[in-house]
Structure formats: C-alpha cells, structure tokens
Sequence to fold (254 residues):
Amino acid sequence: MRPVNLIPPDERRGAHAPMRTGPMPYLLVGALALALVGVALLVLAGNQVSERKGEVAQLKQEDAAAQARAEELSAFTQFQSLQQQRELTIGSLADSRFDWERVMRELSLILPDDAWLVTLKASASPTAATGGESGGEGGGTLRGSAAGPALEIEGCADGQESVAGFVTALKDIDGVTRVGVESSELEEEGSNLATDSDEAGSEGANTECRTRDFIAKFKLVVAFDAAPVPPSATAAEPVTAAPEESESSEEGEG
Fold:
C-alpha cells in the first residue's frame, strides 16, 4: 500500500514543506543590490567631481602665483630691454665719433719745415662746417663734396713744389682718402705784400702769409670719406695759427 501524508500542507515541515514566500524576497534582494550599486557609483562620481574641483582650484592658485611672479619680473624684462637699447645707442655714438686728437697729432708729425699753417678748421660734416674764407655756408665746394669728417687747411709754403710735397705728406695720415687743392697761388707781380698785410690786419685776423714773392699760399681740404658720419655732427672750433715770423721767411729764402 502507498503511504499517504494526512498532515495539512501549511503545517508540514522539512523537505516536503511548500514555499510560503514566493518570488518577492528575490526581487527585494535584487532591488537592494541595484540601490547599493547606484549609491556606490554616485559616491565615486561625487569623489571625482570633488577631485576635479580641487585640481581646478589648485591650477587657479598656481596661475595667480605665476602671474604675480611675471609681474614682479616684468621690471627686469623692461630693464633688460632698456639696457639693450642703451648699448645700441652707445655703440652707435662710439662708432660715429671721430678721433680728431689722433689726426692733429699725425698732422703735427708730417708737417714739413717749409710749410706753415694760418687757419685749420675741422668739421664732422659739410652742414657742420664753420663759416670763413674756406668754409662759407656748409663749407666750400671741395668741403661740400666730402660727406664725412674733413680738415680745411690754409697756409703757405716755399713755392709750389713745397705745396705738392705737403699734399703728398697729408695722404700719409691714417684714414685720409683724398686731399683736394682748392687754391695754390703765388703773389701777383706788382702787388705790395706789406700794404696788403697791414690792411688785412686792420680789418681783422691777418691770414696773408706770403711775405716773399716765391711763397705760395694754399687752401686744402683733407677728406676722411671712410669715417662714419655722426647723426648730429657739430663743427669743431676753428684753430688759427699765427704765421711764422721772419725766421721762416729767411729759411725759405735760403
């Protein structure tokens, strides 16, 4: 005979007891798991947002510090730029300066014994040339053709050969590119040198140095074309040398 369980189903225990809860517990557990995952994701997202905000704030602080540092160093940058500009200016001025002292020293060394100077004018450019017999407005014709520094020399020598020798000697000065002869003349026959000298002396500076009929009076322009021209050249003060006395004349006669 087959055994039959007469205990009501709701009171049975053990393996033969039927499920009383159904699928609800599983649904509840799944919902809780999903909620837990969502909370975890939300926490992670919040943490990431907080980290990004912290990084942004740190970057802003670093940027502000860099800008403040740049403002502090801007003065040094401006000073460096000013220093470079001054160095360029000083270099330009140094290049444009002309060594007149050296030229005068060399001129004194090459000046021959049979020639002497009456006037000597030094100018850095034709526009800066001083007025006078050899200068005029902006210098004479020869002076105007020399754009750079130049010497305007007026004097006398024992004859035309001595003038030519003096011109040759002037070319030995360092930097001289050409020597122009504006005039070289002997005293005309029949003129009275003593009277002309007295009249010139009464009117002003006496530049007549021809005390004998064989003495030639010259006007020369010594050009330094290779020298740089200064941006604003100013003329040097004219140097006037008094003509030598009778000793030079006597030497010329000898």
About this structure: The radius of gyration is 53 Å. Helices lie at 24-96, 100-110, 141-144, 160-170, 193-203, 246-253.
